[in-house]
Design a protein that fits this description.
The structure is a homotetramer. The two termini of chain A are 44 Å apart. Chain A has helices at 11-23, 49-57, 110-123, 147-160, 174-180, 194-201, 217-229, 257-264, 273-277, 283-292, 319-335; strands at 2-5, 27-32, 37-42, 62-66, 86-88, 91-93, 99-103, 127-129, 164-167, 183-186, 207-210, 235-239, 269-271, 297-301. Chain A has an eight-stranded parallel barrel with strand order 7-8-9-10-11-12-13-14, surrounded by seven helices. The first copy, chain A, has a four-stranded antiparallel beta sheet with strand order 2-3-1-4, with helices on one face. Chain A has two domains: 2-66, Alpha-Beta Plaits; 86-335, Aldolase class I (TIM Barrel). Chain A contains eleven helices and 14 strands. In chain A, helix 3 packs parallel to helix 4 (147-160), helix 3 packs parallel to helix 11 (319-335) and helix 6 crosses helix 7. The first copy, chain A, is of the alpha/beta class. Chains in contact: A-B, A-C, A-D, B-C, B-D, C-D. At the C-D interface, helix 2, helix 6 and helix 7 of C face helix 2, helix 6 and helix 7 of D.
Chain lengths: 340, 340, 340, 340
C-alpha cells in the first residue's frame, strides 16, 4: 500500500503517520520527492488492508491511498497458475470443449421443459438451464414454480442425461436447490448478496457466479473469493452484460471481460448473450464473439414459442435458431483451436 | 401498451397479431400510418404487462413495444396523492422537519457507540444509525458484530431515547433484526434481493430502502412496490449515489432523484451523502444540497476517530464536524421553509 | 409521435392540445383509455419532430412524448436495404473481405512509418493508419507532426500501395487532410463536433466516423446522417469502445453494436480493439470477437517498439504479434463465411 | 510515477528497466517487497509523463503504472491557492455574489430575445445567455441564426446593460463570436475539441467551459488547462450533468463535482440545471441544490412560451417561474453566507 501525502502535510504530520504505522507493526518506507511525499506500507495482512486504506484516507494530510496487491487471492492466477476445470455429471467446464448450456428462461411446465431439453440436447447442448426461482424487477411478474420447477428439471435430467443448472436467490433455499441441481447459479442481482455467497460457498456443488450488472471485474472476482473462502472452489464465472447508458440493448455485453478474467483468474468463464443483449437477433453474433474471445461456454435461452414465454421472450431463440447457432459456434470454436 | 410494427410487417402479420391479442381478451386499436403501423393494446392487467411486452418483442414483425403505464402502482403519487409520513418512536419522517440519522458506519463496541450516540443527539440528530451486519466487498473485511451489535444499539437507544436504524442482509435475520431495530435498512447491494424485499414487506416495522447503485428511479420504485405489495407501507427511500464512470467520488450522488421521487411517489426520501461521495470533505456540501433539493432527511456517518474506524473511515465525520454540519443544515432547511 | 397525457389533464387541456396541433397542420388521433389518454400526431416533418417533442414536453398536462420514427433516415436500412460498399484505392470496405487497417498510433518519423507500413502490408493489412493530428487529453502530450506527418503517410502509400487513413480534428484542416488522405477519420472526441461533420460531408473522400465514447448507437447514426446530409455517402462506422464504470479496460468495447448497426444501417462497420481495450494483450481476443460478430474490418495499432512509442504504447502490438493476429483473424473470418 | 512490476518480472527485467530509466535521465527508486517489486520514477517532466506511462505499460513485466502528480497544473489549487474571480462587464464571477445567467436556449428573433432579457434582468439575473450557433444531435433540427443571432444578443446587451454569453462551436467562428460576446461558451459536445480549446485560449475574452457529458473531473480540468496553457486564465467551469444509465432525467447532474472542483482548482464554477435535468420541474430544486453545494453561479434557460420554443422547450422556465426561482435562490444563498 502506498500513501501519497497532500502538499500541505507537515513534517510533524509525517512523523505522526510513520509512528502510527510502526506502532501497528507495519514496515514503513518514506520517500520525499520535490513535489510529493510518498509512504510505502509493508506487511499489512489481507484482512487489514481495506480498513487501513479507509482509515488513512480520513487523515487531512493524506491525498490518496494506492493499493498494490489485488483484493482477491484464492481465485487469482498468481495463486494457482493452471486453469481450473469444473467437472459436473461427466461434463468438463474449462477444458478444450466449449460447453453450451441451454433451456428456457423459466420452467413453465413439464411438457415444455422436456420438449426444449430434448431439442437442445439433439442440437448439441451439454447442460440444461431453467429457472425455478425467478428474480423479477416487478412484483407483479411471474416468480417461478419453486420446488415444483426443480422437480421438473430433475425429470428432464433423467430423460436427457444432461446435468442441470438453476438459480438460487434465498439463503433459506440453498439446501433445497442443491438437492436437485447440479450447478447452483447466482444471478446478477445477487452478486453482492454476501450472505448468499457464503451459503453456496459451504455447499458441495459447483456454483456459477454471474457478474453483477454494475460490478467491475475486480469486484466480481472478490465475490468469487467469498465462495472460495468458504471452501467451495468449483466456481464458474459468467459474463452477462453490464449496465451502461446504451438503451438499444438491455445490457452492454463486455466481451473484453472474457480474456481479462482468463488472465487474472484460473476460473472458467461462460458467456450469456441472451441477457447480455436482450434481443434474440443479437444472440447468435454475440455468442460467436464470446467463443472467439475465449469463452469456455455459452448459456442461451431457448423457448419453443418465444411469443408465449412467461419470461424473457424477447431474448429467447427458437429450437430451430438454436440449432443453427450450434453450427456457427462449432465453426468459430474450431477457428480458435477448440470444439463444441 | 403500444406496439410499433416493423416496416416489413405484412397485412397477414397484422391480422395474426390483432387476432392473437383479441383471443387473449385485450382491446385492440389499430392505426396504419404512412411510415409505421401502430397497435394499441387495451386492458392488460398489471401482472400480464411485462410478460406480454416480452412476448410481443419476440415477434419478427414487431419493432418495439412502448409501455404506457408506470410499472409500479401502490407507491405512486397517482395512487395516493398526499405525502406519506412514516412515524417511528415519536419521530415523523416526511413532515416539515428534516430528520437527521447519524452514527457510526459499524457498531464496533459499546463505549464508542454510546459516545457517538450522545454526541450526535447533542448536535440535534433524531435517529441513531449503526451497522451490526455489514456488507463488505471483500470477504477479508470486517463483517459486523451481528446480534451483539444489535444489543449495543438497543443500549444506545435506551441511553439517548433515539430510535435506531440498522441494516438487514439475510432473509433469515429479518425476524432477529426486527426485534431490536426501529427501522430496517435494505442496503444498495440488496435492493434487487427480492426474497429479502418480500420478507421485510411482511414485518411490522418501517423499512428504509436504499437505491441500488445501478438502479434507475423506476426500478427503485418497483423494489419499493415489492415491500408495499406484502402489506408494509412504511417505506422510506434513500438516495445514496449511483455508479458512473467518475472515479474521484466513490459514487455519483444523484441529487435530481430527490425531486423526481417526490413527484413520482408519495414516499419520503432521505439522502446519504457519506456513501454518495465516499469523501468526508464532500459530505457537508452534498448534505446541504440534498436538503435544498427537498430531502426529508439526511443520513450521515459519524465516528470519533475516523482514522481508527473499522469501516468507511474515509467518509466519516468527526462529532465536531457533524455539529458544524447541523448548523449549516438548519440554515438551508429554513431557506426552503423547513427546519432541522 | 405519440403524446401520453398526465392523469391531471382536463378535457379543456385536451381540446387545447388537439386544436393547437391541427392549427399547425398535423393529423391528430385521440384515444381515451381508462387510465391514460393518448394522442397520436401524424404528418410531422423530419425537421419539426425534435422541436415539436420538446415543445409538447413543456406542457404541464403532458406526461411523456414517444417518438415513433427513427431520428435518422439516409443512413438507415429502411432507406437503402442493400449494404453499402465503400471503395477506396482498390479496396472494398463492406464486402466479403474483412479489411484490416494497421499502423502506428502517431506518425513519429518517416523511417518508423515506412518500417511499420512494410511490416503490416507483408502480414496482410489493406490500409495504413497513422495519426498526423493527435487529440490528447493533456495539453502537455505529443500533438502530432501535422502536415509533415501527412507527407510521411503519402510517402508510405507510395512505397506500399496501401491507401491511408488519418484523423482530422479541425474544420480548417479538412481541405489539407483531404489532399493527402484516402479516408478521413473523425475521432471519438469529435463525433459531436457538428461543424466538423458538416465539413467532411462536403468533401469527396470517404469518412470513417468513430463512435463517441458516450454516444448511443442512435446518436452515432445521427452523426453519420450529418455527413450524408451534405452529400457524402461514403461513410464507414467504427466501434471503439464506450465509457463505463469498468476501469480495468480503458473503454468497454461494445461488441453487440456491430450486429446492431448492421441491422439498423446499410453502412459498413469496422472495429478498433486497440482503443476499445487500451491493453495490447486484449487486442487479439477482442479483434477475433469483432470479426465473429460480423465486423467489416479491424483497425489495429502496430508499433515496432511500443515501449518507445510517443503515444498509446500500452495498446500497440509489435509487428510480430500483429502477424500472429492476422492468422487468427483469417481463421475466424473463414468460420463466419468471409476472408481476410 | 510508480511502476508496479508483474510477479513474473525477473531480476534481469528489473535491471533492464532501471537502466532504461536512468539512461533517459530519471531518478529511480527500487523497492522489492515480499509479493511485489515497486519502482519509483523521479524527475519526469509534465510533457513526458503520459507518454512514459504508456510506454512502460507496454512492457510484459510491468503490471501497472500509477501516476502520482495530477495531470493539470496551472488550473490547480496547488498552483494558485486563492480563488480566481473572473470579471466581465462589471460582474464578478467567483466572489460572494452568486451570479445568475439566464435567457433563451436559442436566439429565435429580436423581439423574443429582448422580452426575455428584460424579464430576467428584472428578476435579478446578471448575465444574458442565448445560443446563436446551436449544437443539435439531429442535422434536421434548428441550428441557430449565426451572426444574425449575435447581433440580436448585442442589441439586448445595449438594452439591458447585461453582459452576454454565447456558444462557439467552430475554430473558424472564434474571432467572430469574440467580437460580439462577453463570455465565450464551450459546450459539452466540444469539451474534447482540442483545436477549439486552443483557439479560445488565444482570445482575450473569458471562456466558460462546460463539462463533457462523459468527462471525469480530472479530464475537465485538463481541458481547462488547454485554455490556460495558451495564456487565457479567465476560465469559468460549468457542471451540466453527465451521462449515466438513468433515463428519467436527460443527464445526471453531478452536484458533488461542485465542491470537488472548488477543492481541486481555483477556478469559479457555475451550474446548469436546465441541461443537467432536461425537465423544467426539476430545474428549481437542482438550482437550489447547486447553490447550497457552493456554486458560484447558475445558468438557466428561460422562454416566454416554452411550448413554442425552437429548442429545449422541455427544460425552459417561464419568466414567472424564473422569478420565483430567484427568490428561492436568494434564500439558499443567504443560508450559505452568500447573496444573489
Amino acid at each position: 500500500m502506498i500513501i501519497i501525502l497532500a502538499p500541505s502535510a507537515t513534517d510533524s504530520d509525517i512523523d505522526e503517520l510513520v509512528n502510527n504505522l510502526k506502532e501497528r507493526g507495519y514496515g514503513v518506507h518514506l520517500s520525499k520527492g520535490v513535489e510529493k511525499t510518498i509512504v510505502g506500507v509493508i506487511g499489512a495482512h489481507d484482512d487489514q488492508k481495506p480498513v487501513l486504506a479507509e482509515q488513512l484516507s480520513s487523515l487531512a494530510y493524506v491525498e490518496r491511498v494506492v493499493p498494490i496487491l489485488k483484493p482477491y487471492k484464492v481465485v487469482s492466477r498468481e495463486f494457482k497458475p493452471e486453469k481450473t476445470i469444473v467437472r459436473v455429471g461427466g461434463v468438463d467446464i474449462g477444458g478444450q470443449k466449449v460447453i453450451v448450456m441451454a433451456g428456457p428462461c423459466s420452467v413453465e411446465n413439464e411438457q415444455m421443459t422436456l420438449e426444449v431439453a430434448a431439442a437442445v440436447k439433439a442440437a448439441g447442448a451439454s447442460i440444461l438451464r431453467g429457472g425455478a426461482f425467478k428474480p423479477s424487477t416487478s412484483p407483479y411478474s411471474f416468480q417461478g414454480l419453486g420446488e415444483e420447477g426443480l422437480k421438473i428439471l430433475a425429470t428432464a435430467r433423467e430423460a436427457t442425461g444432461m446435468p442441470i443448472i438453476t438459480e438460487v436467490m434465498d439463503t433459506r433455499d440453498v439446501e433445497l436447490v442443491a438437492r436437485y441441481a447440479d450447478i447452483l447459479q447466482i444471478g446478477t442481482r445477487n452478486m453482492t448478496n454476501f450472505s448468499l455467497l457464503r451459503e453456496v460457498g459451504a455447499v458441495k456443488k459447483p456454483v456459477m457466479l454471474k457478474r453483477g450488472m454494475s460490478s467491475t471485474i475486480e469486484e466480481w472476482l472478490q465475490a468469487a473469493e467469498y465462495i472460495a473462502n468458504r471452501g467451495n472452489y468449483d466456481i464458474i464465472l459468467c459474463e452477462r452484460g453490464i449496465r451502461t447508458f446504451e438503451t438499444y440493448t438491455r445490457n452492454t455485453f463486455d466481451v473484453s471481460s472474457i480474456p481479462a478474467v482468463l488472465e487474472l483468474s484460473h476460473l472458467p468463464i461462460v458467456a450469456d448473450p441472451s441477457h447480455g443483449t436482450g434481443l434474440y437477433k443479437l444472440v447468435p453474433p454475440v455468442a460467436r464473439a464470446a467463443v472467439a474471445a475465449g469463452a469456455d461456454g455459452i448459456m442461451v435461452e431457448v423457448h419453443p414459442h418465444p411469443e408465449k414465454a412467461l419470461k424473457d421472450g424477447a431474448q429467447s431463440l427458437t429450437p430451430q435458431n438454436f440449432s443453427l447457432l450450434m453450427k456457427d459456434l462449432a465453426a468459430v470454436a474450431r477457428a480458435v483451436g477448440r470444439y463444441v
